[in-house]
Amino acid sequence: MKKRKEAKKIVFKSEKEVPLMPMSVGSFLFNKTGVWRNIRPVIDPTNCIQCGICWKFCPDVAIYIEDEFPMIDYEYCKGCGLCAEECPSKCIVMVEEEK
Amino acid sequence: MSQDKKKKKMRLSLPEEELMNPGHVGCQGCGATLAMRYTLKALGQKVVLCIPACCWSVIDGPFPYSSLDVPIFHCAFETAAVSASGVKAGLEMVGDTETTVVAWAGDGGTFDIGIQALSGVAERNDDILYICYDNEAYMNTGIQRSSATPYGAWTTTTPVKHFKNRPKKDIDAIMAAHRIPYIATASVGYPEDLFKKAKKAKDIKGTRFLHIYAPCPVGWKSRSEDTIKLSRMVVQNATFPLYEIEWGEKYTLNIKLKEKKPIEDYLRLQGRFRHLTEKEIAYMQEEVDRKWERLLATVEGCQ
Q1: Choosing among B8, B12, B16, B21, which should be mutated to test the A contact, i.e. which has the most A CBs within 10 A?
Q2: Nearest Cβ partner of B66 from A18, A23, A50?
Q3: What is the pLDDT of residues B190-218, one digit of tens each?
């Protein structure tokens, strides 16, 4: 897996500095959507069969692959529960977020 | 974690490269973001997107920030197809023939507001790829009825007492009547199939039309974890069959069904169909059966 790009917000001092087209280099990574979450997915690696289905069906690209295992990026995971529903070995559980 | 498990290599059915970044503002369990993710995986980075007013013009992020790694052109609601056609003509003027120009519109921008521009582009056979992700109402502005809304569905402009009593517009047949090189339907529940179709569409010259079924948990009043289940069920009960049409005549069915599932299980997962009675469901089942038989006959006639 490639290293994630830096999540830094580019600030414009005046309107003249703003580009004419949207900047397409991951410029919206500073928006940490993890704060939307009420329930969080937790992967149990002992039962994981490494099928990659959770990675494939994540709408927020919040699951990445490290050392041949799926990992969840809690900075961006919105807690939709799709990974837990689709996991064929049922090794992902959704637990209540502690606030 | 056992040691031999660590040695096993993970086999992924799609390429690992991501052109969509996390941090976008799509709702939980959004089907449209999945559609974009798979499509960009297939098309690669040499792509220009023309996005009219639709969910994706919001999901992408506020101007000038963007959560996609490809250039985006936000255009007016009714001009998705012609904007893409203009971008393509401009690129050709400067000698760039490789870049795929994609018009990425929702169902409102395709079925209702954008159909005039789309029809014009299809008639001229301009070299663009038009992708419609279909969430069956104007979800972005607050779940208003569109002509892609199916029979019986609740929306804010067709309340329960006066639910929509007209069927969904058959956009694929309309596009097939234009005799364009490639038309395909896809569903986010079958990512490999969607990936294959987007790759195939990329290599064809002329107007290509891709119709992607993308569930919307907010507008359909379904659970966010049911997105993939719904988009798989809709294919298995033949409400949204997956097929390709070449030059408006040659039909190919991609997912052949051994046994067709009843439509009721699919309807019961969605709050927008909660008010339907047995009689209305029986009518809907009848309509689905009739359409499916007609499609099967068309496919058979092509072979």
Answers
A1: B21
A2: A23
A3: 999 999 999 999 999 999 999 999 999 99
The verdict on residue B215 lying in a domain is yes
CATH code matching the domain that covers A27-96, chosen among 3.30.70.20, 3.40.1050.10, 3.40.50.20, 3.30.420.40: 3.30.70.20
A14-47 pLDDT tens trace? 888 888 888 777 788 888 888 889 999 999 988 8
Predicted confidence band of residue B5 (pLDDT cuts 50, 70, 90): low
ipTM of this complex: 0.91
Query: Which chain A residue has its CA at the smallest distance from B9's CA?
Result: A68
* Residue B132, domain member (yes or no): yes
Residue B6 belongs to some domain of the structure: no
Pick among A46, A57, A60, A83 to test the B interface (most B CBs inside 10 A):
A60
State how many domains chain B has.
1
Regarding pTM above 0.90, the answer is yes
**Reported confidence tier of residue A11, pLDDT bands at 50, 70, 90:** confident
**Residue B146, domain extent:** 20-301
Residue B195 belongs to a domain? yes
Q: What is the 3-state secondary structure (H, E, C) of chain B?
A: CCHHHHHCCCCCCCCCCCCECCCCCCCCCCHHHHHHHHHHHHHCCCEEEEECCCHHHHHCCCCCCCCECCCEEECCHHHHHHHHHHHHHHHHHCCCCCCEEEEEECCHHHHHCCHHHHHHHHHHCCCCEEEEEECCCECCCCCECCCCCCCCCCCCCCCHHHCCCCCCCCHHHHHHCCCCCEEEEEECCCHHHHHHHHHHHHHCCCCEEEEEECCCHHHHCCCHHHHHHHHHHHHHCCCCCCEEEECCCEEEECCCCCCCCCHHHHHHCCHHHCCCCHHHHHHHHHHHHHHHHHHHHHHHHHC
List all residues of chain B from 55 to 84 with a beta carbon under 8 Å from chain A. Answer: 60-61, 63-74
Q: CATH number, domain at B177?
A: 3.40.50.970
| Segments making up each domain of chain A, as ranges | 27-96
